[in-house]
User: Which sequence fits this backbone?
């Protein structure tokens, strides 16, 4: 499994930043995301965090998902610069 | 009859399209063998009778819940009684990609398919006709662009439902190579020509019972340990191909959320304001359940009471009249009385779900519920438990993880439900005068609130204990959609309320009615010698001509009390007296506890009979009698503060509802968990009552 050094975990994405999904490293999380139509290459924004920083609200493809921090750590993204 | 099935991802507007096409014409039942709602309706279109079936929503044909599994089974199994002749895949226009993914899976199963693109009113520039035609041509299926809200395109859709569509076309996706031999074997066994159906059987063999283990064997032989990776790869390939097809439509179908929606979310899922808003909403729900619902409930109670009174005087004295009045009508009353609260509860839950707010609550609460082995999704059943545990336990189905769902089911009955209210009201009044207050707060009201809080805290505490016992560490994946906000569709809201009330009356009502009749028998009959003696005694007493009306009434209620003591119920009450004596309860309370198994509020009526309170003015009369009751041996007050508090706690915690147990058995599939409910809840109730009696008694 190759993960480029510039990629970070979705769980580390700062609030309000946008990023491109590069890779999901477990098939369970991968499947849960793909079922919602979220695939590598999609652009996402960390919209907000629930109290205590978990779960995260991610805006992606015109909808929003809630994802636990632990699951978000399996999603590798590359931060987009505005 | 031709069968048409509706399927689509959650929030695609599938159910509102179904409601639009069918109206009140629909029938709600269960799919064969499972308690998953099956909504269907018969339509006549172009002189043809067509059955339209609303399948549970799903994102893909690889199910993650039992409801979704039903949808998949029906589409996969040509022998299934609900297997459709045509599938309408409903897609949200703003989430077209997802709808198309599901659509291509359905197509590849070899089923005649049409795609319905709903909510085109949400697209700023609409959908150009020629692009739809192009997509339709490329997929080889008819496509309809509609808006249920604006009632656009419904007629054209109806027109096509009556026609026959061909199913033969090229599969959308090529099956990965390397499985040909296995697929050929499965195809022979399933008697199908569709590779994709066989491929699914290979990836998820446990969902294909009709293969008798062939799927599992091939699955093992090919060493498909990570079939999840194959499944997500399949979906990725489909999405990839769909992106290519949609190039033209793409710019139209990915709208940015409106400013209003963004502001709304900034408030509603804000770390502070989010909880404040949720608190206010909970408060409004409480108000509705306890003060607004009391008007129709009082009316129902009075109605049932006067019906019983009227029938009693007009019907001849016969055991059948007794059965009708005391057994059947009392039982029906016990069912109908809950309808206002259940209707209110579902009104709120339907509005919160329809608007998209509920998923925000799930988001806000997830972290807080996790230490207790539950997830954000557990909040919905727990709130529902304040009205009635029965529908709430059914709502726990939306919790995908097995342990989180089980823990939620196990603790939901600890939430104080509506049936406990009459008991609370009577018992609190016994030791707290109604005019006592604490600053601005009425003390009775405060104690009532305290009991609700107690139920909630006990639910959390036991959830924590079960989490430890099940050795559960919140390993479940939690990825859930928070759909865009929208105005609730009222038709949908009211249909939900209607259907839930109907289901409650039918499902729980049958049990309540049966138990009520059984209790009537136990309370009206006893060893014949004793009963005859009482009859004779009072026959003589009542035959004295000089008695005035009041004296006759007193004698009659004394007779009822003595008969109840001599009845089987009375005997049972005496039999359990030694067990409940440490709690300060006597046999009369024992009888009340036993009859509470029909529904908790039956306790009040039973005590009224035991203390021979007349028909009218039951509550106040009973309260006075209970306060005056003395212990025959010591002469002390029978219902001391200690006994009343012990009883209150007992009712707050004990498992006294057969219907809840029946639903829990259905939802968990075994008697093991309902049995655990009885043991732990009644154990807790006994312990709490004992402590209270020792401290206050």
Assistant:
């Amino acid at each position: 499994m190759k993960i480029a050094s510039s990629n970070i975990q979705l769980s580390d994405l700062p609030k309000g930043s946008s990023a491109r999904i590069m890779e999901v490293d477990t098939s369970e999380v991968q499947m849960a995301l793909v079922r919602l139509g979220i695939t590598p290459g999609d652009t996402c924004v960390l919209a907000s965090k629930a109290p205590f920083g978990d779960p995260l609200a991610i805006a992606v493809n015109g909808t929003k998902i809630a994802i636990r921090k632990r699951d978000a750590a399996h999603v590798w993204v590359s931060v987009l610069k505005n | 009859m031709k069968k048409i099935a509706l399927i689509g991802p959650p929030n695609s507007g599938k159910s509102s399209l179904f409601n639009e096409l069918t109206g009140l014409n629909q029938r709600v039942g269960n799919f064969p063998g499972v308690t998953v709602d099956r909504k269907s309706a018969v339509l006549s279109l172009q002189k043809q009778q067509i059955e339209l079936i609303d399948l549970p929503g799903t994102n893909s044909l690889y199910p993650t819940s039992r409801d979704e599994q039903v949808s998949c089974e029906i589409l996969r199994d040509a022998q299934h009684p609900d297997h459709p002749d045509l599938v309408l895949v409903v897609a949200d226009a703003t989430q077209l990609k997802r709808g198309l993914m599901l659509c291509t899976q359905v197509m590849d199963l070899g089923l005649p398919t049409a795609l319905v693109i709903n909510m085109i009113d949400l697209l700023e520039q609409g959908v150009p006709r020629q692009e739809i035609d192009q997509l339709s041509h490329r997929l080889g299926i008819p496509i309809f662009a509609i808006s249920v809200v604006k009632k656009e395109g419904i007629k054209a859709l109806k027109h096509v439902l009556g026609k026959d569509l061909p199913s033969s076309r090229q599969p959308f996706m090529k099956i990965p190579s390397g499985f040909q031999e296995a697929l050929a074997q499965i195809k022979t066994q399933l008697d199908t020509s569709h590779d994709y159906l066989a491929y699914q059987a290979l990836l998820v063999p446990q969902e294909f019972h009709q293969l008798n283990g062939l799927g599992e064997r091939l699955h093992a032989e090919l060493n498909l340990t990570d079939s999840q990776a194959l499944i997500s790869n399949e979906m990725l390939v489909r999405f990839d191909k769909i992106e290519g097809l949609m190039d033209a439509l793409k710019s139209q179908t990915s709208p940015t959320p409106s400013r209003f929606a963004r502001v709304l979310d900034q408030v509603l899922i804000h770390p502070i304001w989010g909880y404040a808003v949720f608190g206010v909403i909970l408060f409004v729900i409480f108000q509705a359940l306890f003060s607004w619902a009391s008007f129709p409930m009082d009316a129902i109670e009075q109605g049932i009471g006067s019906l019983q009174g009227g029938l009693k005087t007009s019907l001849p004295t016969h055991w059948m009249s007794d059965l009708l009045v005391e057994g059947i009508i009392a039982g029906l009353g016990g069912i109908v009385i809950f309808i206002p609260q259940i209707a209110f509860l579902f009104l709120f839950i339907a509005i919160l779900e329809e608007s998209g707010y509920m998923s925000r609550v799930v988001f806000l609460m997830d972290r807080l519920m996790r230490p207790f082995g539950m997830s954000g999704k557990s909040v919905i059943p727990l709130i529902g438990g304040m009205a009635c545990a029965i529908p709430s336990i059914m709502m726990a189905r939306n919790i995908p993880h097995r342990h989180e769902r089980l823990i939620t089911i196990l603790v939901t009955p600890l939430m104080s439900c509506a049936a406990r209210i009459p008991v609370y009201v009577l018992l609190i009044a016994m030791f707290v005068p109604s005019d006592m207050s604490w600053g601005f707060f009425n003390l009775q009201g405060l104690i009532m609130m305290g009991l609700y809080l107690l139920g909630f805290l006990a639910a959390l505490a036991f959830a924590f204990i079960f989490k430890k016992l099940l050795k559960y560490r919140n390993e479940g994946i939690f990825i859930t959609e928070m759909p865009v906000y929208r105005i609730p569709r009222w038709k949908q809201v009211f249909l939900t309320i209607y259907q839930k009330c109907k289901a409650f009356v039918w499902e729980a009502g049958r049990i309540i009615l049966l138990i009520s009749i059984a209790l009537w028998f136990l309370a009206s009959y006893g060893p014949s010698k004793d009963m005859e003696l009482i009859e004779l005694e009072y026959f003589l007493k009542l035959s004295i001509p000089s008695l005035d009306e009041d004296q006759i009434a007193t004698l009659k209620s004394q007779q009822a009390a003595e008969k109840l003591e001599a009845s089987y119920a009375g005997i049972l009450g005496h039999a359990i007296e030694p067990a409940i004596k440490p709690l300060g309860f006597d046999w009369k309370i024992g009888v009340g506890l036993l009859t509470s198994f029909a529904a908790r509020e039956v306790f009040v009526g039973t005590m009224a009979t035991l203390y021979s309170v007349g028909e009218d003015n039951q509550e106040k009369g009973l309260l006075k009698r209970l306060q005056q009751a003395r212990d025959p041996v010591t002469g002390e007050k029978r219902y001391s503060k200690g006994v009343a508090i012990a009883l209150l706690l007992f009712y707050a915690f004990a498992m006294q509802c057969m219907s809840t147990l029946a639903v829990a058995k259905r939802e968990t599939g075994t008697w093991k968990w309902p049995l655990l409910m009885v043991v732990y809840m009644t154990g807790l109730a006994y312990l709490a009552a004992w402590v209270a009696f020792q401290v206050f008694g």
